[in-house]
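The step that takes the researchers longest sounds almost clerical: writing a folded protein down as plain text. The outcome of that step, for a single protein, is printed below.
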Amino acid sequence: MNEDELVKRCLIDADAIVTYPFDEKKYGKLPVLRHKSNNKWFGLIFRLNDVLYINLKAKPQTISLLQDQFPDIVTAAWHMNKTHWCKIDVHKINPETLDAVIKISYDLTSSKKK
């Protein structure tokens, strides 16, 4: 999976959009996945040492379970709150689990229904 395919995988709803808020010359291409309705982030795609990762939000107990199940694949988030965000190596995790964590992150950051 490449970066563009990962972005497409994250656009799970009409409210999901991709933005590039950072200076590409300074930081490289850093796609940020957001909600159109509330502008909250639910994902950050990046490369470290030429490995493709995504930061996603989840409840602390969910992150702990993922890290126990996938210790070298799901780790502390890069440049984000380590309690509420995790970093996932997208080439090592199975697609179904990745999709599930994307959905969790999307749901946690969506506008609350009344």
DSSP finds four helices and six strands in the chain. The chain has a mean pLDDT of 93. The CA atoms of residues 59 and 97 lie 15 Å apart.
